[in-house]
Automatic annotation (TrEMBL):
It comes from Cryptosporangium aurantiacum. PANTHER family: STAGE 0 SPORULATION PROTEIN A HOMOLOG, TRANSCRIPTIONAL REGULATOR-RELATED. InterPro entries: GAF-like_dom_sf, LytR-like, LytTR_DNA-bd_dom. Pfam families: LytTR. The lineage of its organism: Bacteria, Bacillati, Actinomycetota, Actinomycetes, Cryptosporangiales. It comes from the Bacteria. One of its GO terms (molecular function) is DNA binding. This is LytTr DNA-binding domain-containing protein. The keyword Hydrolase does not apply.
């Protein structure tokens, strides 16, 4: 199943003493993590390099971030709460606790052994405290938010030394369309082993909760297709239907060319939708959804750059509702109606700290690469691959978008919806007929040069960056 969680055993072969020794070296700046599972080493890297979490933190901070979730997510929290409460007795018998967090890592509720709950409170393992990796380092809840699958953290695998007496296992429930986390279900034990069935308990609870999301995605997808069909019958403008995340559910032939997505036929699986790869369009759709959630009669217009067009194209965005809940928008191209959208709809950019290392994996090894060692990154399905001086390796980043954001401050540029390149590794720029550009990337050690295409949409940014 695409959205089912693999029931892998929550075990580790690392020797506890060797993990602690590796932890000691790593917090002091050594990059050697021998004897540590790759997923834990990657998490440590995030905690040290990206989040700068103090490894000597003694308690989790109070949660300050509040996530603006949709009403549908309230049903997810209720369903997951029911599943967690049903586990509470079995977990309590072995001296454990069960927690639920939201997508920020904020604990919403907990159940379990009273003595362990009292011990947990000393570390703020309690409601309204934040256990994301950026707040509390490597732990079951925070690492589950970062991983696509179960997260097990035991003893010295925790980034913060004060939590080394704990063992925890978490699993995230994710939106079946956007794949963004909604909540985490977690089991924690103090100075004892996790229950043998912990992995199965978590996987079953998460899978049943995601069935609810899949059913809702099917209903909202069908309603968006129906709204698209009705609107297309009364208009000749190019038209597409997009969900609240800015992904395309269905588009006619003209709109599909402008957005670079398949035409007309929606996917058989209602959770499979297409990313148009046009940041302005996605931002406009998301902005429209925020406005429509406050005012159902809202209609807006703006202009965006599309594929195969040298000039911006006017669009009109209208909201679509199902049983009073916003489920997406209809986007009409070459049309103008309603008030204009603000010129910048993405909101203020978060400050970024310079990235010192790029994390990658090869077989069972974790690789920490300096940015100059990376020639370019390529998206291939659900994976991101790096062309590096050490060969082709898999990036730890979950998406090309997130990797591109991380590398933007160290000389990397998004040149195509499938490629991010290191500007300093561009050897030549080849101009093709029709104004298309190809980048000749300097070859990796012992290898040959590679050719990377530049999309029309990104060509002006490439010319500006290279001053050509």
């Amino acid at each position: 199943m695409k959205d089912g969680h693999r029931r892998e055993p929550l075990v580790t072969t690392a020797v506890p003493g060797s993990v602690y020794a590796a932890w000691e070296r790593f917090v002091q700046g050594d990059d050697q993590v021998l004897g540590v599972r790759p997923e834990v080493a990657i998490s440590w890297h995030r905690c040290r390099e990206q989040y700068r979490v103090d490894p000597h933190l003694t308690e989790a901070p109070i949660a300050v971030a509040e996530i603006d979730h949709t009403p549908e997510y309230d049903g997810v929290f209720a369903e997951l709460g029911f599943r967690a409460a049903s586990l509470a007795h079995d977990v309590s018998v072995v001296g454990g606790v069960v927690t639920i967090t939201d997508a920020t890592g904020r604990i919403l509720a907990e159940w379990g052994d009273p003595a362990t709950l009292a011990r947990a409170a000393e570390a703020n393992l309690a409601p309204w405290f934040c256990w994301s990796e950026s707040a509390a380092g490597t732990n079951g809840m925070g690492s589950a938010l970062e991983a696509h699958g179960p997260a097990l953290v035991r003893g010295a695998e925790h980034w913060c030394q004060a939590f080394h007496d704990w063992a925890c296992a978490g699993i995230a429930v994710r939106d079946v369309v956007t794949r963004e986390p909604i909540a985490v279900l977690n089991i924690s034990c103090w100075r004892s082993q996790l229950p043998p069935l912990a992995g199965s308990w978590l996987a079953n609870a998460a899978a049943k909760t995601q069935c609810l999301l899949r059913r809702r995605a099917r209903n909202s997808g069908a309603e968006l297709v129906a709204a698209y069909t009705q609107a297309r019958a009364g208009s000749s403008a190019a038209l597409a239907a997009m969900d609240t995340a800015g992904k395309v559910v269905i588009a006619d032939e003209t709109a599909s060319v402008l957005m670079g997505v398949p035409a007309a036929t929606p996917a058989l699986d209602p959770t499979v939708r297409w990313n148009p790869g046009l940041p302005e369009l996605i931002g406009a759709a998301q902005y429209a959804c925020k406005q429509a959630s406050r005012n159902p009669d809202w209609v807006g217009s703006t202009q965006i750059f599309t594929y195969l067009a040298d000039e911006p194209t006017p669009i009109v965005i209208r909201p679509v509702f199902l049983s009073g809940h916003l489920i997406g928008t209809l986007v009409s191209f070459d049309a103008s109606d309603g008030p204009p959208l603000p010129p910048h709809t993405d909101g203020p950019a978060r400050p970024k700290s310079p990235l010192r290392r790029v994390v990658a994996t090869r077989e069972n090894r974790t690789m920490l690469l300096r940015p100059p060692e990376v020639s370019f990154a390529e998206s291939d399905g659900n994976d991101v691959w790096l062309s590096t001086d050490q060969g082709r390796v898999r990036a730890a980043s979950a998406s090309l978008d997130s990797l591109g954001d991380e590398l933007a401050d160290v000389g990397f540029l998004r040149v195509h919806r499938r490629y991010v390149v290191n500007l300093s590794r561009i050897r030549e720029v080849e101009r093709k007929r029709g104004g298309e550009l190809l980048l000749v990337m300097a070859g990796t050690t012992g290898g040959t040069d590679s050719m990377v295409p530049v999309s029309r949409r990104n060509a002006p940014a490439v010319r500006r960056a290279l001053d050509i």
